[in-house]
Amino acid sequence: MRLIFLLTGLLLCALPARSNAGTFQRVEGTLSGFVRDSANGESIPFASVYIKGLKIGTATNAEGYFAIPNVPDGEHEVQVSIVGYLPSLFVIAVENGADIVHNISLVAQSVDIPQVVVTADLEEERRATQTSHVILQAADVTTMPTVGEPDIFRALQLMPGVKATSEISSGLNVRGGSTDQNLILLDGTVVYNPSHFFGFFSTFNTDAVKDIDLMKGGFPAEYGGRLSSVLNVTNIDGDRMKSRGKASISLLSTRLTGEGPVGDGSWFLSARRTYFDQFISLAHLDTGKDALPLYYFYDANFKLNQNFGQNDKLSIVGYLGQDNLDWKIGKNELAIDMSWGNRTGALKWTHVFSPTVFSNIMATYSRYTAAIGVGFSGSHFEQDNGVDDYSLRTDVDFFVTNDHFMKLGAWWSAYRVSYQQFSDGDPYVFLNRPSQIALYAEDEWQYDLRWKIQYGFRFEYQNLSRSSTIGPRLNLHYAISDNTSLKFATGFYHQYLTAVPAGTDNGFSPFDIWVPINDKMKTSRAYDLVMGYETKNIADMVVTLEAYYKKFNNILYFRNEITDSRDVSDLFYTGSGDAYGVELFLNKSVGRLTGMIGYTLAWTNRRFPELNRGASFMPKYDRRHDLSVTASYALSPDWKIGSAFTYQTGQPYTTGVARYQVDANGAMFSQTLPGPLFNRRLSAYNRLDFMISKRMSIFGLQGSWYIQVYNIYSRRNVWFKQFDDAKNPAEVSDVKLLPIIPTVGMEVSF
Question: Phi/psi zone of residue 225: left (φ > 0), alpha (ψ -120 to 50 degrees), beta?
Fold first, then answer.
């Protein structure tokens, strides 16, 4: 608490005293309130609230709340706007400096009618201080072709600077970072393994999602604990006006969603389940020597909100997700039993202390577990690992003046990190209980109509390593003109947890084991420099060009050799790295034809003294060129078609240079001697997807059907190289990815 007060004092002292003759004599009030959707009462974040005559304004926060202080006496016209909604205009009258609370309801505006043009208010664009910021709505994700059903991670992988190691991985590699360097939040709660089906699907059901907020670099002091990015997914609150639902079915899964009002608030529930296991069981394909595995996953999202007066709101949020696989081959020849999943829960209290002081206080719990049991020829092997995260978090927003918006916060977490392995020998047990605290303070300063500055500091301490860090952050935004701006961002970031990957693909899997650093290790750290240029001079299109450089220090690389050490420092090599590149992004979000083009030219390097003879190498997720093109066209109000094309430079892999034999208790085994790390590249990757959908009435209910074709020209891209040491010379073959996959689905609202 002393540090919070100290940081607050430093920021307050840093606020410039801009005098204005006669200003102190004016009588002023504060305009505040919430902006919500008129159809369902959902809060609308990032909406612009602008007082035209005074040329002052603000944007709503994540809860849809806004406050504009220092509004002088008199009548003033206020405009509220955001893309996708009709602007709202109203007049307020301030008398004797009285504060005004005015809640606004916006009417959604369809953007597929050709004669309607929806534009964002200029003030909203000027408030876009954050560099390398991607904001998507669930509707944006559903228009992108994919396998089976819309997926958030698949959509994000189409953004410049964001990649996956393969098309069947939902992990994100952001600007040269590994997948465990991303902070992933679901309604403010950390999610440690956001994947289903070995990474083929993400844990986020688009029916439950309201908005997706990805920060690829230069993220503010509010966020920390990871080096590469922050992904903040917010679920729907629920319809405050009427009860309604939606059901979807496809060849892969069924989804069911319901929402409605309750008391002075709302409820929301969404669930889905796959049925691979049902098909296999009904066809009796789960027995015999050629048995197929019985596999399925399910997940559910729940949220309950209640208002207690104008100034208090209580929310209960929960998520449950589980994957299960049962595979028995022959009569006791091989038996594999696997399960993994996430559980999260949160209790959030939102309180308005005054028109200019807004707060969120949260208690959260996150649990990730994975277990596998294997029986083979009388031998048995078991592995269990998991993370339990108990956290308390508070964030306070201060609308200090029209020129300064401040945030203060604290985040305390206690962990239980465990790993157990049982086989024929002695069991291996690893257990750690670290705790961590973070404090931050930041200020967003609107210096004048052109310059906006966001600066702050983040302090973090972890007891297991006995280390503390301070990470300064800075974002600059300069408006060259009404439609063109320059951005600059830099920051220092630190990470105390890392994941031991299963296999060599550096992607999310059920067997990634999260471990904390100890007092023999140094905190992983990174800093970045980002410069951006953005213009809206091209009709209905936003063009963004960004260049970045990122430096990594004390990053970890898992030792693949077998070890039974309980000391985390023995499990990793420690090294450094860097990443740099240029990203071009064109986005058209209004009109009948919408879509985006993203291109990235990038380099990623790693250096570890014990690896590759100390020479630098490019990890598997280095891609020199990356191009993504998506397009969606409304043939009519009911018919829509869309496509997505991806081209990427082939990813690096390690070749074999020789083979040798190992004597294991009298049995000789052939092994491949690897060459320099990641010294070759696979062939270039490219794929085209297509979809068509139609809205229609089904049994008197509004609905739609769709057809999606994944990999329409059935190019079998290479996944990895396989070395067959049983042959001499060793045979090298390509393991290929998915061919063309058509999918049919239907959705009904009620």
Answer: left
Quote the radius of gyration of the chain (alpha carbons, Å).
Answer: 27
pLDDT of residue 172: 87
Instruction: Give DSSP secondary structure letters for 160-209.
Output: TTEE-SSTT----EETT--GGGEEEEETTEE-S--EEGGGTEES--GGGE
Residue 440's nearest CA partner among 175, 224, 129 is 224
Q: Which two tokens stand for residue 47?
A: 């909406």
Q: 3-state class of 337 per DSSP?
A: strand
- What pLDDT, on the 0 to 100 scale, is given for residue 367? 95
Rounded to an integer, what distance in angstroms lies between the CA atom of residue 80 and that of residue 58?
10
Confidence of residue 126 (pLDDT cuts 50, 70, 90): very low
469, 523 in Cβ contact below 8 A? yes
What are 165's two structure tokens? 């190691």
For 95, how many CA atoms within 13 A lie in the half-sphere containing its CB? 1
CB neighbourhood size of 735 (10 A)? 10
Report the mean per-residue pLDDT for the chain.
86
Amino acid at position 735, single letter: V
Q: What angle do CA 498, 502, 508 make, to 5 degrees?
A: 65
298, burial (CB in 10 Å: exposed 0-12, middle 13-18, buried 19+): middle
Task: Summarize pLDDT for 382-406 with one digit per residue, the tens.
Answer: 888 899 999 999 999 999 998 999 9
Contact status, residue 232 vs residue 210, Cβ threshold 8 Å: no
E-assigned strands of 423-562?
428-432, 435-446, 451-462, 467-479, 484-495, 497-500, 513-516, 524-535, 542-558
What domains lie within the chain, and their CATH numbers?
26-116 (2.60.40.1120), 234-749 (2.40.170.20)
Residue 741 has pLDDT above 70, yes or no: yes
Helix (H) or strand (E) holding 376: strand 357-376
Distance of alpha carbon 303 from alpha carbon 205, whole angstroms:
14
Token pair recorded at residue 182: 């991303």
CB under 8 Å to 266, separation ≥6 — which residues? 41, 237, 238, 239, 240, 259, 260, 304, 305
- Compute the distance between CA of residue 561 and CA of residue 504 in angstroms, rounded to an integer: 13
Cβ neighbours of residue 720 under 8 Å, at least 6 residues apart?
A: 505, 653, 682, 735
Neighbours of 310 (CB within 10 A): 11
Whole-number pLDDT of residue 475? 95
Query: Which is nearest to 635 in space by CA: 694, 688, 589, 710?
Result: 694
Torsion of CA 529, 533, 534, 539, to 10 degrees: -150
H/E run at residue 722: strand 718-724
Q: Tell me the C-alpha distance between 238 and 41, whole Å.
A: 8
- What is the pLDDT at residue 660? 77
Q: Which token pair is 481?
A: 């003109």
Give the tens place of pLDDT for each residue, 326-378.
988 877 778 888 898 999 999 999 999 999 999 999 999 999 998 888 887 66
Cα-based distances in Å from 496 to 124, 175, 216, 221: 36, 20, 19, 16
Q: Which residues pair with 694 in a beta bridge?
A: 639, 705
The answer to whether the beta carbons of residues 144 and 642 sit under 8 Å apart is yes
* pTM for this model (two decimals): 0.89
The alpha carbon dihedral of 193, 196, 199, 205 has a sign of: negative
Tokens 């209580």 sit on residue: 314
Q: Average pLDDT for residues 15-33, to the nearest whole number? A: 59
